[in-house]
Amino acid sequence: MKHNKPVQIFLGMFWICMFTLLSHAQKNIHFTNGQWFNGSGFVTTEFYSVNGIFTKTKPAHVDTVVDLNMSYIIPPFGEAHNHSPDTELEFDVFNERYLSDGIFYIKNPNSIPFTTKKIEAKINTPGSVDVIFANGGLTGSGGHPTGLYSYLLTTIYKKSITGWTNRSMEGHAYYVIDSKEELHRKWPFIMADKPAFIKVYLLYSEEYEQRKNDTAFNGKKGINPQLVKQIVSYAHTAGLKVSCHVETPADVLHAVKAGVDEINHLPGYQIRWKDGFDAAYYQLTPAIARRMKKKRIHADATYSLSQTEVIETDSAKRNQQLAVQKQNLQLLKKYNVQVTIASDSYNLTSKTEADYLYKLNIYSNLELLKLWCEVTPLAIFPQRKIAALKEGYEASFLVLKENPLKTFETVFSIQLRVKQGHLLW
Questions:
Q1: CA distance 171 to 150
Q2: Fewest CB within 10 angstroms: 116, 268, 281, 409, which?
Q3: Which residues of 171-209 are buried (b: 16+ CB within 10 A; e: fewer)?
Q4: pTM of the prediction?
Q5: Rounded to whole angstroms, how far apart are CA atoms 266 and 325?
Q6: Is the confidence at residue 24, as pLDDT, over 50?
Q7: Digit-coded pLDDT (tens) for 83-132
């Protein structure tokens, strides 16, 4: 449907106009009277969206004019570590939850190709979240997450993959690899499902020899740290990056030396007091931080897990854990190691982690905003023109009522979401 004159839309009239906008394919939109984030502050300017791309050049025809009423415009957010959505079940619920929180980009570092292939047509569209999958992660015998999937088969996968057993998961949800020969043999199968990146598990690698054959440590161990460098070599040769699950500073050091690209979790997201460890054991060192900076390795802290999944109820221990979390983040900040925002909580989003980090008061409002809307999306889709509001980039953004550099909490009350030139709500 064509209009002789552009349709003028004001945010105050948004709900009245929403269904009209969604019922027509809007190609050319003129966004006026907005204060746009430029990476350091907000500037008053205007943009056009032409075929989902930002431009300041007026097209021959404008379908709609959207008056942003001097609202604050920022790029959409990312979720650097979550395992949803990954099945057809409740996909619409997860999709709406992410989009509602302003999260357009998701990195899933362990998934089952059998289920994710069923949602391929539903993701990576202007009306849905954009997701990349690692497929099954690489671990050792008895290593995490092999035991976890016994539980997941009784919960989130109970209806989506009926008839499967924990043994069925090997070669799909994870790959057990205990030697270079096994890695070489299984690598073609790993690549056959076309992972977007590779996930490997290191857990208490400093005790690998002690734990590897002891079933008492099942779920509390990972792959042989000596294999990680070979995995990285295989992955990089295939043009894939490597994410590494860690628990301790020793795991981080092994991963960094092996050449991984990303650290999943930061030590201190959980503390295994019952296994004889204390909070201080999880403290990173300047030497590790320097190595991470030198090799440009970023990390998703997932520290909000200590409030959502692995909750410490003892107040004294919780204070010790908080102290280590703050020390680790302050250390990485000192050495300019980037932290991506991630929740790793199936029923939550990186909004939870952003709020948690905000309350830790490590980062300024500007720093935290940039981590969430610039650093994290580009860590997920480094080749795409996203995470910036400028000429030639995807016309995706969030509209806020207040200036988040002054009132950060306004990022949790999004007024309007636009993805690739499509007005969502």
A1: 15
A2: 409
A3: ebbbbbbbeeeebeebbeebeebebbbbbbbbbbbbbbe
A4: 0.93
A5: 8
A6: no
A7: 998 989 889 999 999 999 999 999 999 999 999 999 999 999 999 999 99
- Cβ atoms of 182 and 202 closer than 8 Å: no
Helices vs strands, H then E, count in the chain: 15, 18
Q: Which amino acid is at 365?
A: N
Which residues, in sequence order, are CB contacts of 154 under 8 Å at separation 6+? none
In angstroms, how far is the first alpha carbon of the chain from the final one?
21
Backbone angles phi, psi at 323, to 5 degrees: -60, -40
pLDDT at residue 375 is higher than 90: yes
CB-CB contact of 196 with 170 (8 Å): no
Give the distance from CA 95 to its chain's centroid. Answer: 14
In angstroms, rounded to a whole number, what is the distance separating the alpha carbons of residues 284 and 162?
42
Of the candidates 15, 66, 82, 77, the residue with the CA atom closest to the CA atom of residue 411: 77
For residue 363, give both structure tokens. Answer: 């980062």
Bridge pairing between strands 53-55 and 42-50: antiparallel
Could you give the C-alpha distances from 15 to 62, 98, 208, 270, 312, in angstroms and in order? 21, 20, 58, 43, 43
344/300 Cα distance (integer angstroms): 9
DSSP per-residue string spanning 352-379: HHHHHHHHHT-S-HHHHHHIIIIIHHHH
Q: From residue 361, how far is each of 234, 334, 364, 373, 408 by CA, in Å? A: 40, 14, 7, 18, 12
